[in-house]
Amino acid sequence: SLRKTCKTLGPDESNSEQTEDELAERRQSVCMNLSQTLRTTQLLLNFHGGQPVFILRPPSDLVNFLRPRWPVECEVISDSIQHIEWEPPEPEPFHKPSHKESLIPAEDGPGNVVYCSDFATKHLYFTCSRVGGSRGSTSCAKFLDTPPDITLEFESRFESGNLQKAVQVGAFDYELTLRTDMYTEKHTQWFYFRLRNMKAKMIYRFTITNLMKASSLYSLGMRPLLYSERAAKENGVGWHRAGSNIRYYQNCSENNDDSDRLYSLTWTLRFPYDSDTCYLAHCYPYTYSRLQYYLKQITSNPAVASYCEVRTLCQSLAGNAVYVITITSRGTSQEEVRNKKAVVVTARVHPGETNGSWMMEGFLDFLLGDSDDAQVLRDNFVFKVVPMLNPDGVVVGNYRCSLAGRDLNRNYKTLLKDSFPCVWHTRNMVERLVAETEVVLYCDFHGHNRKNNVFMYGCDSHSKLFKFQERVFPLMMSKNARNKFSYKSCRFKVQKSKEGTGRIVMWRLGIKNSYTLEATFGGSTLDDRKGTHFTTGDLKSMGFYFCDTLLDFCDPDQTKARNEGLVNELCSHLACFFNCFLSTSGSNSSDSDGLPVHLLHQQRIPEVS
């Protein structure tokens, strides 16, 4: 009877796209009930050419680098999107706002919709996934109501892309709407999309009209990022800052409700070449596929594999692998390995904070390198690294949430293993680690949208025995990275609203040095780098400095950590911190609290008698 049921789940050519989605949901339901029906968890149901095929479940931690899985309603183009790495010869300066930038009025009328991708509205909550997303045609997203020779061609239906709609309101003037995080109505900040059919000498204006943060680094001189495929091919130039007449402002609205206020970002831009293929982005993209490529390089290097092990921690909601890396020198005995202290480092719980992944790559480059310092770290510690906590959000181009429609960094205390597998398994891994050995430090890498520089959030212990200990590591970081890391921007308050974050949950597990490392989307205001943007090289360097500081912090010779000058400087900052307890300047994700969206909708479905 089970095989008969499976056969009814084959494709029907007469079905509409909506029927195909319903079919996918039925397949998912059968797969979920399979283990109960057959009383085994080792047999999985797959579909090949529409026919049911039974396969054995692979080992849970087996490493694989399969193509990303998308929600079935997502339209995904087949183009392979790749960018070269490049460092500008000189630091790129902030834009200097004149505060006199005038808004160019749009032409009368609603404008012409030249791009619209509405897949995000097809489902209220996540149901199931497949490699490549929807089977439907991807041509339906384009509308050209004006002559194509003067109209830009927009596209964002690729990995980490985000643009929902583009409206041409003038010959070279476009109003853009970003897609909210899937299955939510919030969190518009991250953008990343492709443009074609441009004219090099013309001045284009772009205005993103549905941003939700009241303040932005764009008001402090941050500029968007531009990538030209022709510039990359002919001159080796990659992502660089571009744009003039940048302004961030509140939209006009008759609604006085602060929670519903929207903001706009507008800027003008000249493209370097005619008929080029270009990309615009909020920050340097770092996709799930790039991480997989990086991990493939690690696993294929025999020398690195001798002290580095890559495994699958768990599967995400969509079925994408969440990888965990264990890095340590092989001891002469098991007891020697067990006696090592541990360090836990994670990143990309918020998918739009790509700067966290660049810092993570720098951290791994150092730790896996052949330097004497890297060897010392591997000899003395066991590193547990989860480089991408939210692969689903990264794949679909979310800014903050997972496919549960919730902020994972508010759900580390969750009991809902199946709804929040990534953070549940991470917390479980750390709990087991704490029971086995001393975890000297936990750090989660993030991006920050309202403050410049790099800084840390920690947890004030209020303990006489360990008073101010949590401030030592950040202060040492500021000494190692003087022109990038701001100790004055660090905060250590434990807020009730942040109890579900990784930083506080790990601290309550007993890890005294529990932090988030926050890297700006903008740049530095310090020393010789004052007024310049961060590059990918700058972000990677923070991973190097993190390792360097860890060496100093845990050096058996505690001269650096306990020298009188450092202690005096630490004390001199305390008065400042006591005046900073009103806010950590962190993000408010209270609108993403609660049960996963799919469970909420299941509760609302009335029972059929």
Q: Helices, strands, pairings?
A:
Elements: H1 2-7, H2 17-38, E1 43-48, E2 51-56, E3 69-71, E4 112-116, E5 129-131, E6 153-155, E7 165-170, E8 173-177, E9 192-196, E10 204-211, E11 225-228, H3 229-235, E12 240-241, E13 244-250, E14 263-269, E15 277-281, H4 288-299, H5 302-305, E16 308-315, E17 321-327, H6 334-338, E18 341-347, H7 355-367, H8 372-380, E19 381-386, H9 391-396, H10 421-436, E20 439-448, E21 454-457, H11 472-480, H12 502-508, E22 514-520, E23 523-524, E24 532-533, H13 536-553, H14 559-562, H15 564-578, H16 597-604
Parallel strand pairs: 8-10, 18-19, 18-20, 20-22
Antiparallel strand pairs: 1-2, 3-5, 4-7, 6-9, 7-8, 9-15, 10-14, 11-12, 11-15, 13-14, 16-17, 17-19, 21-22, 23-24
Pfam families: Pepdidase_M14_N, Peptidase_M14
Catalytic activity: (L-glutamyl)(n+1)-gamma-L-glutamyl-L-glutamyl-[protein] + H2O = (L-glutamyl)(n)-gamma-L-glutamyl-L-glutamyl-[protein] + L-glutamate
GO molecular function: metallocarboxypeptidase activity; zinc ion binding
